[in-house]
Amino acid sequence: MSRMYLISLLSLSAFFLVSCEISCRNEDGDPVDWFIVYKLPKYKINETDGTGLEYLYLDSKSQEWQLSKFLTNMTHSALGQVLQQLYQSYKSNSTGYMMYNDEPPGTKNYTTNYGHTKGVLLFDKLQGFWLIHSVPHFPPFPGDGFGYPDTGKLYGQTAICVTYNHLQFKKIAAQLLYYNPNVYNCSIPDIYQEDLWSLCTICQGKKFPWIDPTRLAVLKSAKGELFLNFAKSKYFVDDIITGWISQILEVDLLSETWQPKGKELPSNCSLPWHVYNIKQIALPYLSFYSHYDHSKWCVSNMYAFTWICIGDLNRNPGQKWRSGGFLCTQNKLIFKQFRKIVAYFNDCEMSVY
């Protein structure tokens, strides 16, 4: 065996080792530490209506929002690339996964017995990803392969994927106990029963009666990015953004959550740190009103603080009693990309431009 052949063989082996690591993936299928998808609503202001499948993309290797050349329902989309890892490995005895959604795919049943929360975990003994999103009826069951529901086209939606080392999933499992997710498909092989017993418990549909109202955890991505995860149980009866997140971060927040008429909570200035409802999103080539946006995020009003949080709870009266959470970061790139698209918001007395 020649020396050059051996070097080539080792290089090729290293490539496959890296490419096979479970992680968030960009549209080329390459591993990334994190990515964010902002699916655009079908109806836009002063624009030709879209398909409801276009989306903006941002990741740890980019510098600003990019309008994707793919559509959300394509396997080459960011969501398609990351979830293909699950669809190709869900029968494996070496990987564990969990899919949860309070409105699972293939059913019109909706229950408030679980958290208003949606997401996917996939991991092995090395690392994995946690995908948090806002899309009802998504993603499909593993046996059905990747797809995107027609019901997810009308409104704007958000998703954040973060890659974590295996040890972080013990923390994530503890947070999910507070989320009380509606798990519609999961598999936790025996090799994870000891260190990820919380995930096994959730997967089996069991609950713990001693859950506290809230739990805050610091999560570190595979590349060292720090995130705060705010998890609230049903025993915390308040709007998570107003009553907890803004007060802990000590910053006024601009909140973008679904605002169906008559069901939204007004902007709130009754506590030391205030929360204002965003009313319109503006991008260089399109804009849309918040009542066409089902995404869930909030961002610091002041540029000096750079907090941005993405999650799965809305600011409306009924969800004061629902469990769920938000993932927050002070990443300046993410903050800037979200803060700059706020067209105007309501303070506690009038609209602010």
Automatic annotation (TrEMBL):
Span of the signal peptide: 1-20
Molecular function, one GO term: deoxyribonuclease II activity
Listed Pfam families: DNase_II
Reaction(s) catalysed (UniProt annotation): Endonucleolytic cleavage to nucleoside 3'-phosphates and 3'-phosphooligonucleotide end-products
InterPro entries: DNase_II
Enzyme Commission code: 3.1.22.1
GO biological process terms on file: apoptotic DNA fragmentation
Alphabetized UniProt keyword annotations: Hydrolase, Signal
Recorded family membership: Belongs to the DNase II family.
Annotated protein name in UniProt: deoxyribonuclease II
